[in-house]
## 1
Amino acid sequence: MKHTTDANDQILVREQFTVYLHPYGPARWSSEARQTYDIFCLLQGALRWTDESHADELRAPAALLASPGEQVGANGAHVTYLLVTLAPAYVLDCAVRARLTRADARITFTTHAVNRAERLARLAHDFAAEMRAPEPGQELVVAALVEQLTVHLLRHHANIRRADELELSRVGLVDRRIRRAVELMHAQLHEDVPLEEMAAAAFLSPFHFARLFKKVTGTTPHAYLAALRLERARALLATTDLSITEVSARVGYTSPSHFAKAFRQATGLSPRTFRAALILEVRG
């Protein structure tokens, strides 16, 4: 997930979701290689957006939606936006609790662009108001807004179908055919994992494993692993006091400068800037 940020951006990171508020300015965003549900709410301005086969203009109020593995991007010069990313296990849990499906479902967005998204815009404005003037109880309010947003998307913009190949593992919702390989990646984020080792974990040849993995996730095994590392880095930057050097080592980078470059390429901001934009818990 690439996006631009500046000193006025605010970021709230929790285990099941992340919320980014970009008040006004240039925007570059991409869902490339992400395994989360991404909701990009355009609150002000206009931009150009693209997916694998389409390009068009989007004007506020509008939204862009990307399911795990889908590639959607946007560019704009003068925009205000809110970006919410949701963990797949969280989305499925909301769908089950809302009695929209059982736990063996695959959920995808039915469209990438939602024009005249008044309901999404109202929710996004509520997010923005809470993040701009944080008060005690902010985490509860934001969590409630995330749940409202998720249920709205499930009701109106999601395709829910049974998927026997999915299962909830110790690393989240995973296709059972690649579960062991994905668990291996999670266990070895701090070191390189050869394709042959990933394939062996899935009991497949490297060729067949790589082809199946791309079909299932929308990305290559090593791009998936790189995204996992950077997702873990974001969590460490947000929830620990570890130095950037220590964070880089924990996610498999021997050089802090290489880590910083990869982090910036993936997110649009440096690790230091990301940490400075974090919203911390507000106490009374």
Note: The chain has a mean pLDDT of 88.
## 2
Amino acid sequence: MIKVSTQEFQIYCKYVYDICGINLASNQSYLIETRLAPLLKKFSCNSFTELYNQARGDRLKKIEQEIIDAITTNETYFFRDKSPFDLLQFKIIPDLIDKRSGRSGLPPSLRIWSAACSFGQEVYSLAITLRELLGNDLGKFRISIIGTDISDEAISRSSYGLYNQFEIERGLPPEKLRLYFNPVDNGWRIKDELRSLVSFRKLNLLQPFTALGKFDIILCRNVAIYFPLPDKVKLYEKIASSLVPDGYLMIGAQESLTGITSLFEPKRYLRSIFYQLKN
């Protein structure tokens, strides 16, 4: 395996941060070596410097996007951590539906955003949760679930909704597999009933995202941990502006907004913590 020099690693630290906001630690040179090694071969590069120069000279930014796809962490699985989905099913979604019902004479609406959705497991876990909670009444609600990610590969795979056996076995109970997926030659594909509830689009969280509109629920789990503090502050300020006044923010189980922002108030239900805007 080709090794990355100290100087090359410093160059890539700045480059990776500039293109996707990920802050590589000083001991993470192995990430460059392992994740970008296939790109060295693909683009016939004898060093990481050659790959960097090719990426910078590529006006279509195709190599840059492949570097983003390789570097970004796509570690996720269905119903990850489970507790947040119990929180959604038994607390947050019922409370929102009660508040939204009868407001305008129109069917109640819910807009949910999964930020940094990776390959879509969180998004489809949300769709399954809503289907099981609302049952045959699902069609009576205006449901919109949006998944965003900086990776083209992640958005493409999420939109298609195809998962291999290994991905299916990570967090998805057998009864949910039977109910909500169709077997295909190379895995399992989410049923159209659930795919119709969701949409996906490419988004860099460090860029403005007001065009997405306002949301009732935002999940931004296990992504801000890769950002330096100033970017975390900016991210949560923008998220605050994207929440409706009585909306809910959910972050990772090991994450906290303490010392980052004072715009949110933490609240607890059962074993889970969620955040709402301060009055």
Note: The domain at 6-71 is CATH 1.10.155 (Chemotaxis Receptor Methyltransferase Cher; domain 1).
